[in-house]
Every structure is written in structure tokens, then in C-alpha cells.
Write a structure and sequence with these properties.
single chain, Outer Surface Protein A, domain 3, alpha+beta, 177 residues, 13 strands, 38% strand
Length: 177
């Protein structure tokens, strides 16, 4: 059985939880998120805590019990604090700029790489080489940051490319004479 699924989620002040069948809606000061619970999982509010229980004892329900609890916990954290991922661009002449709802990256190609910024996501650029992707949906923030990184992954010889802040990139030794 899931150890994660057994833990109740404390509902902080200022957060509203609405349960309608398999639909869970969370409202907070930063916004509103919704999640549909997998079949076989049930949610209930008791003592200002959100508790998840499997309805059936099959393997499918056991697998999704912890997943459902983790996703809803991330939603509660998102509407109260939000999430952010920081990226850094390393390379001569590499830079980024936000123009409206579009992120323009000059990362060593013959053309600029453009990304449409999804709704609910904010991108801030500090000193042309540091990006901050933020929003209330943890999955959307992480996926958009991963898409940006995938445009020019750090290469192992000089370390040029886009990497997450604090990410370790193993360096290789170049050719020797």
C-alpha cells in the first residue's frame, strides 16, 4: 500500500477545497486548479485536512493512491506559494528576451529559437542569461522549463548551453596531442 497516500493534506487558511464526485477544485490567493481523481480513489475533507482512500483493493487503485495525493498536495502548494524553476544560459553570445507572450532565445543557431509562453506561466529574464519560469501548476512550470532546456542542452566539453540553476554537468577532457 502507498505510504504517501496515507498522509492527510493540511488545508491552509485561505484555501478552498471543493469536491464534486471525482473532481477536486482548489482555490487560493494565487489562482484556481482542478484535478480529476483516478477511478478507485476517493477524497474527503475532515478536520481541515484532505484525506484520500482507495475504494477498491486492486493494484490499479494502489498505484494511483499516492499519485492522486501528491498531485493534489502540489496543487495546494501552488495556489498558496507557487512554483519556479531557474535556468541559466552559458555560451558566448547566448541570450534570452521576453517579447509579449513569446520567449526569444539566441543560442548559437542561425535563427532565433522562439517559444510561446503558455497561459498561467510567467517568464522573467535577468541580465539576458538567467531565466525564471514561474506559475501555480508544478507540472506546467517543470515541463516548460524542460522544453526550454531541450532547445540547447549543455554539451560536455565546454559546458555551453541551457541548464537548470545549480545543475552539475559532467565535463569531458578534450583531445590531447
Amino acid at each position: 500500500m502507498s505510504r504517501v497516500g496515507k498522509k492527510p493534506i493540511a488545508i491552509p487558511a485561505g484555501v478552498e477545497v471543493q469536491l464534486a464526485g471525482q473532481e477536486v477544485q482548489i482555490k487560493g490567493k494565487l489562482g484556481q486548479l482542478a484535478f480529476r481523481l483516478p477511478d478507485g480513489i476517493q477524497a474527503a475533507v475532515a478536520n481541515n485536512e484532505l484525506v484520500f482512500t482507495p475504494v477498491t483493493t486492486n493494484k490499479q487503485a494502489a498505484k494511483f493512491w499516492g499519485l492522486a495525493r501528491a498531485r493534489v498536495n502540489n496543487m495546494v502548494a501552488g495556489v498558496t506559494k507557487g512554483f519556479e524553476r531557474k535556468l541559466e544560459i552559458l555560451g558566448t553570445g547566448f541570450r534570452a528576451a521576453v517579447q509579449g507572450q513569446q520567449l526569444d532565445l539566441s543560442i548559437g543557431f542561425s535563427h532565433p529559437v522562439k517559444f510561446a509562453i503558455p497561459t498561467g506561466i510567467k517568464v522573467a529574464v535577468e541580465n539576458n542569461t538567467e531565466l525564471t519560469v514561474s506559475g501555480i501548476d508544478r507540472h506546467a512550470v517543470g515541463q516548460f522549463a524542460a522544453n526550454i532546456r531541450r532547445a540547447r542542452q549543455p554539451e560536455p566539453y565546454k559546458g555551453k548551453g541551457i541548464r537548470f540553476k545549480g545543475e552539475y554537468v559532467p565535463m569531458k577532457e578534450g583531445k590531447k596531442k
